[in-house]
Write a structure and sequence with these properties.
With 124 residues, the chain is an alpha+beta fold. The protein has one domain: Nucleotidyltransferase, domain 5. The protein is 40% helix and 19% strand. It has a 4-stranded mixed β-sheet with strand order 3-2-1-4. Strand 1 and strand 2 form a beta hairpin. The chain is flat. The C terminus is likely disordered.
């Protein structure tokens, strides 16, 4: 994935059959339209989109909307390592790539379990 100077980068992670970190990057000027398009997919009472809680037809609907957004996507995968080792490797690689390119804001995942474990540390 190629980040561009000033990009806003959103990051999420998954621990299904390895440790996956997925980043989407968008030019700041495109972020508002992308966020509006995704918010338009929220169902009544729904606060956020999350594949884990969606059925297959809804996942297809979300993906088809995402495919027309002005974003770039990258995936970092670490397999055969415990999560506590895989997470800093994958997030560190992503952050390094974003920093080298001059990407702007990065929205990193902040899962409560990881925050407790990493409290006080410098690890991503």
């Amino acid at each position: 994935m190629t980040f561009r100077a000033g990009d806003r980068v959103y990051v999420d992670e998954s621990k299904a059959l390895g440790y996956y970190v997925v980043a989407t990057a968008a030019a700041v000027g495109d972020v508002r339209d992308s966020e509006r398009a995704l918010r338009g997919l929220l169902l009544p009472g729904q606060r956020r989109l999350h594949f884990k809680s969606e059925n297959d037809s809804r996942r297809r609907q979300i993906l088809s909307r995402m495919c027309v957004l002005e974003v770039r996507v990258g995936v970092w995968v670490v397999r055969q390592l415990p999560d506590r080792e895989a997470r800093p490797l994958s997030l560190g690689s992503l952050v390094d790539a974003a920093a080298r390119s001059g990407a702007g804001q990065q929205e990193l995942p902040a899962h409560s379990r990881h925050r407790r474990r990493n409290r006080g540390s410098k690890a991503p």
